[in-house]
Amino acid sequence: MSVSSSTRELDARSRAGRKNEVALVPMTIGACLGLAAGSFCGGSLQSIYPYVAGRLATSSDHALWTLTYFLIHWALGIALMPWFARKLGFKRLFLASMVMLAIGAGMGILSHSLMTMLVARGVQGISSGLLVPLVQTLLLRHFPKRHHTLATALWSNSMLVPFFFGPAFGGWLAVNYDWIDLFWLVIPFALLAFVLIRVSLPEDRPTAPPPPFDLVGLALLWLGLIALQIVLNQGEQFGWFGSPFIQRYTVAAILLLGCFIIWELTSEAPLLELRFVSNRNFGFGLLLLCLGWSIFVGWSSILPLWTEVDLGYNGWWGGVLLIPLALTAIPVASAMGRIARHVSLRMLAALCFLLFAIAFAMAVYNPEIGLAATVPSELLQGIAVGMLFVPLTMIILSEIPADDLAAASTTSNFIRLASDIVGVTMLQTLWQRHTESVAALTRSAMSESLVRQALAHARQDGMSHAQTMAMIAGRLQLDASTWSLDDALRLSAWICLGAAAVSLVVLKKPRPQGG
């Protein structure tokens, strides 16, 4: 080969390298923007359920279903991503996810009933779920190894920042304009991410065909989760297991999910690799991760609801209540990769749950004091949230062979997100039922002389009998709701204290060569 041809070849390689390096910037922006748009879809409604209920002509409790149905399909999207990536390639799958996200947002804009909104949230959830592992894979594949820490930080913050700050923005938009504009905002960002990836990412169509798609497993899983969601969402309304309606759906959920587990354990190409759950660190580590994440998501959904429905604050303040979590969670999560190199993973997991327990125990929710009293416990809880993922994820994957890490990660992420629907619904149900019990006990303990005295004072102030009774009933409901909230906080503190002990006693020390 001549010197001139060698020089031309080197120049061509150099130009190609510079081209790929330049393409890395729009690819990163597009991938992170798409993931942020999906996360924003999930978190932006958390502080405005009363506003959602008003548009859909339903109750605030039913409006909470827009979160749980999103979470179900978010988890399904994560489970579907590996097969579709092998079928379509990463680029085409990302583009398809952006189109789905825009379509889901458009369906939400046109929805005027709870049922159509739940369908829209399902479409948004699947597309957002596909993006979680997809964007992580894209960043790690195209960033140099020396910058993988940066890639992981970009991925995690693209997912967390909209989740934390989305509720405040959604509340501000609901108060000043219309909350449905949240979906209008998603569409241009999804299209911009589509264009950036379309022009910056090279084609990567798979050369080998994927394994057979586990359609039976998907059908069993989806139907089982929907049946479970109906039981959790409507159990309180129908009187739980005293209702034939709830009994039928409970049996259906148990049978469908049971058949799914059996099918996955015996299938040659399963949708989820459930066999990893029998591993001690994987099983118990995943249980702890599900517990911590579901309690956090449950409280981040209930507190804005209490702030708006019981205290009378608008959606903006309901969303602002979650911002202190972000102020500590995001920097702590960014630093955990370096901290975990020097501190025992089991100690970090135990400390995480201990901080959760302290935050719940010290929380002060008092209508007389105001929302400022919640900030110290929110800041401490944010530190715990930032510490949650890294140590437990490393423990979960510590004994998984390298070839199975992708499948194990997909399985653990699916189970973690699916556990959210149980945590959110059970915490809300506990709060509602305890509120009713406390209100009934307080009403029975009120003496007639106290009521007559209150009526006399109200007449002196010019209030009618009906106005006075409404004021007493409202104050009674507010006190009962706040007391039951405090009791649920203390119960959460004890649960997290037990989880801290399990982290130290049950989990094994990860092997140095683990995942």
UniProtKB/TrEMBL annotation:
InterPro entries: EmrB-like, MFS, MFS_dom, MFS_trans_sf
All residue ranges annotated as the Major facilitator superfamily (MFS) profile domain in the record: 27-511
GO CC annotation: plasma membrane
Gene3D superfamilies in the cross-refs: MFS general substrate transporter like domains
TM region(s), chain numbering: 21-45, 65-85, 92-110, 122-140, 152-170, 182-201, 213-233, 245-263, 284-303, 315-336, 348-367, 379-402
Principal subcellular localisation of the protein: membrane
GO molecular-function terms, A-Z: transmembrane transporter activity
Subcellular location: Cell membrane
Membrane topology: Multi-pass membrane protein
Keywords in alphabetical order: Cell membrane, Membrane, Transmembrane, Transmembrane helix, Transport
Family statement drawn from the similarity comment of this UniProt entry: Belongs to the major facilitator superfamily. EmrB family.
Descriptive protein name: Putative drug resistance transporter
The species this protein was found in: Acidiphilium multivorum (strain DSM 11245 / JCM 8867 / NBRC 100883 / AIU 301)
